[in-house]
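User: Can you write out an input/output pair for a complex, sequences first and structure second?

Assistant: Here is one pair. Inputs:
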Amino acid sequence: MAELTPLADTAEPAPGPGTAVRRIAYAGSWGLRAGAVLVRRALLLAAMLAVVFLAVELLPGDAASATSERGDSAADIAARRELLGLDRPLWERFADWMTALPTGDLGTSARGEKVADLLRDPFPNTLMLAGTAFALTAVASIALGCLAAARPGRLTDRVIGHVATSAFAVPDFVVATGLILTLSLWTGWLPAVTVSGPDGDPANWKMLIMPVLALTIPQTGWNTRIVRGALADQAATPHVEAARLDGLSTPRVLLRHALPGALPVIATGLATSTGMLLGGAVVVETLFNYPGIGSVLAGAVASRDTPLIAGAVALAGAAITLVLLAADLIRAKTVGAQR
Amino acid sequence: MYLNRRQILVGSGAIGAGILLAGCSSESGGSPAPRSSGGTPKKGGTLRVGALGRAGAITRDPHGTQTNESDYLVLGLVYDTLTVPGATPNTLPRLAASWEPSPDLRTWRFKLAPGAVFHDGSPVTADDVVWSLRRLRNTKSGASRLPGVEAANINADGPDTVVLVSDYPNAELPLLTRLTTFVLKKDTPDNALENAPGTGPFKLDWYRNGNARLVRNDQWYGGEVHLDAIEVTMFETAQAMANAIMAGQIDLASNAGSIAARTAESRKDLHIIRRSDDMAMPIVMRTKDGPFADPRVREALRLVVDRDAMVKQVLSGYGTVANDIMGTGDPQYARDLPQRTRDLARAKQLLAEAGFDLGKSYDLVTTEDIAGLAESATLFASQAREADIRINVVKQESGAFWDDTWLKGSLYTTYWGTNDSAIFFASKTLVSEAGQNEAGFADPAFDAAYRDAIGAPDQAARAAALAELQKIEYERSGYLLWGMADGIDIATAKVNGLPTLAGYGRVQLQGAWLS
């Protein structure tokens, strides 16, 4: 689900010149600014959903053949195609699905179930998983980044730098498999997979630990590098330089003078991570049997179940959009304040 | 069982993942851990079962398309079918206590089990059964689930007898009622299916997103049930299910596949249950026309394949060598026919006699629908090279394969998950008018043997016809059946009385108990 990430703007060193939209909005009111950004994000999301529809169309086979039974004749499959509306042009199906979307109707899956029903339990579960991983990532990467920046070039800095780079370089599923082996199969400390109870949630909180770690470790690696880099840029600015020459303590310089200026970049980096977290959830949830939309999505792609895929992507995309919006606002606020 | 292909896909232990087994010479494949079902069964306890399934494919309809093993497991324990799979004979009574054909084998009278009641206490009547069978017959795939029996020809005769009239003589009708004829109460509305009472050994406590808890039905007419409860957890992947049993989160991993079995072999606390004759993965050679129409060419290919190597490498040893006859688990399987073995010299000679063009390359079309399928094609192609036959393996996407290649191609792989009846395959894929005649096979002698086997009035004549039918299949059909994959379940040491039958026999957990 790497296509979730293009939503994110590239991290730009702040305070830099903003885009045209940004300048107008800065001159104008906050509401206008937020509205403009929201519209832009919504358009991006719609474009991405169109890409999803198109991508499923381009895969070999379709929902009619993927859900057919052995022995179904070509006529049976054709009838099924008609039933599922697959005989209509792609743009028409997409338009129908999109116009129903604002009413909260996510359409009907290839097996005739309401997509909203299929995602009702999984979506909050995924939000809980990705949200926890996001919070942990934010705390850990800022802490590690500051720790490294406190003594630039020293051993701590170098170790954190290398570990962060390798943590990000290792794919999610490798991290997950390593965690299962070490924390569950060899030691028996944690449950290896998630088992759900009658309420549709994981049976106990311990089942969340490994999936959260599997998502957090790579993203913390990525964000630690960003935090470290942003603090280094800030350290070279005159006001931080001045603070240090005034003899203020290192933590104080870092937290009171360097960090505020680095926040826009850090916020953008973290926002980018939400896409990665939700994308990684597909792999991680499947490996841990976690009952989230990632697991649903993995199965839906195999069944060419376009409405179900689009529904899952729309929900994930909406969540990412909100986070990116928050990052936009933080960036605008801090950049504005500094001017 | 009209296993649809997705069903087997999920059942094969690796969803869409073609896992390469070739080259892993495992020491195993040998001895299954003997299940000492010794001792008296103890009552009580909860069995935690893992089964494969997908969130998007969940169905709660007993007559729906069950592609999720987890759903089929739940349905199979909450609802009863008229008959169930057995070892010998291969059809055993369940909700139907007995059955009786008319002399012409067209009218079958099923007598219901005395004392059968639904979970809400109401007795099961013939009307309930008739309503359920008609509902099944009227589904999209009803024609293949109750072949030859029109909905109008399913009727009650008194409170405890159901009469089915077939369009043609059919000695195998009771076998065809084994896996899908779940009985519900008459007039159960479609929107009340989720909690509709069944008659099975377990009652539904709760169900959510593929996971469920079932509790013992103390009223069950079919004998004593030992377990207090069964908890079903759905797994999207065999890998996650294997991890769950290794970590002790489940007691039974149903249909876990050979990869998981190899991992579990080293564990003393886990038992590997091998259910033989579970899955056939034959190579289909078109008999009607094309390069394999000459029976000598087909014979040559059957002599080219190295069956032992196929079982060892493709199935990791979890399987048995087969002899080109479909239905290896049939109690009347023709064991007297000599086992074909590799004979490259004879194969080359046959090819020369038939004038087979060795200068051309022949496409063998396969899919990755089930674990090992594509690998079997690749390994066969390399074995054929040793007889100078150039076979080029083409992997097709599943949907395209079933649309374009199946029933039409000249050389392709197929797979079947019900293997305890030679007649089943004769009627479904081999007799000339069969709807799923995979090789375009049309052989008058075979057709005559088939008609005798299902329609001859006396048992001895039927047995002789069945032997003749298998002999013809062995000699000249379009199937190259090199081996049979075992079904593999993994269980913890405390689980006893687990099913050992192939295919969907694995869901019969009513006899299981915990020590």
